[in-house]
Amino acid sequence: xxxxxxxxxxVTKPARYTGGEWNSVxxxxxxxxxxxxxxxxxIYEIGxxxxxxxxxxxxxxxxxxxxxxxxxxxWTDMAAQLSSRGIPLFSLxxxxxxxxxxxxxxxxxYELTYTNVLxxxxxAGIPVLAxxxxxxxxxxxAGGGCVFNPEPMADFIDCFVVGDGEEAILELLDCLRHWKxxxxxxxxxxxxxxxxxxxxxxxxxxxxxxxxxxPKSIAPAAAPASPTIKQRIVATLPPPPTRPVVPYIEVxxxxxxxxIQRGCSRGCRFCQAGIIYRxxxxxxxxxxxxxxxxxxxxxxxxxxxLLSLSTSDYADIDTLVASLSHRYPDVMLSLPSxxxxxxxxxxxxxxxxxxxxxxTFAPETGSQRLRPVINKNISEDDLLEAAxxxxxxxxxxxxxxxMLGLPTETADDVMEIIRLVEKVRSSGIKSPGRRLQIKVxxxxxxxxxxxxxxxxxxxxxxxxVSKVELLKQGLRRKGARLSWQEPGVSLLEAVLSRGDxxxxxxxxxxxxxxxxxxxxxxxxxxxxxxxxxxDAGLDPGFYAHRQRSLDELLPWSHIDTGVGTAFLKRExxxxxxxxxxxxCRRDACNACGLERLQPACQQKLNRSKVG
Length: 611
Description:
The chain is an alpha/beta fold. The protein contains 21 helices and 19 strands. The termini are far apart.
């Protein structure tokens, strides 16, 4: 694509589009029968920091009959250049137009990237609506956390892979291989992939609604579509990618990464990841140690991140850190997602190389009353002790994450955030020679599918704004810097996360009006979305601000995570009454539903019944 060079000088950060990075894989196009392009619907710097694509990239390229390439959402200047010059969106490795691939696989991890999917398909010269694509077009698939409610994107995606994709994607490609040699219509391919456990083909289902707009039924319209899609769960974590592509330019997470654990059993009731990535699966210590060495050798990184939803809960994490520090003394280890306690501070302080400048804690609320509601079993004393320990050990900057609008939250609970920040600040004053800098980041609670709070209403924007004003006034006096998410962004996230199939026309209309890159504040255009809802005759409040009945059919009710609805209802009722639920890895089995599928869970449940 020689004419690409003619436009790169017109765009910012042209290295986003050139490819050729270290460890990128370029296979012979003509001799490789199955061609997949892995698409991340955000810009290069964000996508290159995501772990899902490197896992699939290395897995697929390890097969002789498959080539996997990458594409990211272009920034506005590059999108304009492609459109004005008639250049179709292309992959980085071979610079082939996306429409020449067999499969385009999108990773959907955030609802505000949905319009980017439409924009990328359009820039590729591929019909945006699945119903308008024919046998000549690639199969458009999607996976990731957002597909646990696939309905808002059902109009645009041919099939969704629900859950862990490492095994399911290979089975899907086997179907594609057989279909390509059969000379049958693509409809036959969709029938075949619909029979794969964990694969959802929305065109094979019919959705009906009651007169009041509530879903009435979600049912298969044809065999072999199943009434329930059970998410895929890999029993043992496959080998981690140790030869990822190394970017030419600085990206958000510019370091190596090893997933040491998948899943979390803490049971925070607002956390979707804690449900959909169950059960907990740990990577053995020795495998992690060897993988870090390979990553360093293959990529030249001097920093490696040990990834997990709750790194502190990884078995003998302190022993693993000590082993890695001893074996690779020149490598800086990054430990995200640590608990807000002094053990985490001491763990970080044990690292031979660390900046010693900043720590991040996520108490979520300053209110002791609300902690049992959200099942966040970190006490105020834990946090204050952690802050004091951090100061003693030279950590001067502290970032605290809170949420506003949690179920049952009052103005008094919001004021408790200010009081807690003041207590943390006072601990800094008591430490001579230490000047503690506190940053407070506030996000809006978004009720998510498959969580105990999936029935809860999101608070109105008017109430959220008043709570933000309370924090602004109170924290200004405490000398803490406050940042917050605009309530309009959170409203759209809530609508798209809990929406039904009718939202497809809203997403489509917003994109037609010029919405894309909505996750970027400078690109977010709320007026487009307001008009799109008006044109579709839909009320965003119906999806976001409405308290849902526990007996209501939810748009994602046909997606089975393995965690049962009865457990989620029980947890919701415990939340409203302010009762905590213990961590099942340390106490008795909570009978969440996974005991049906996991022998270890069943054994623990049996033992707890006997006890």
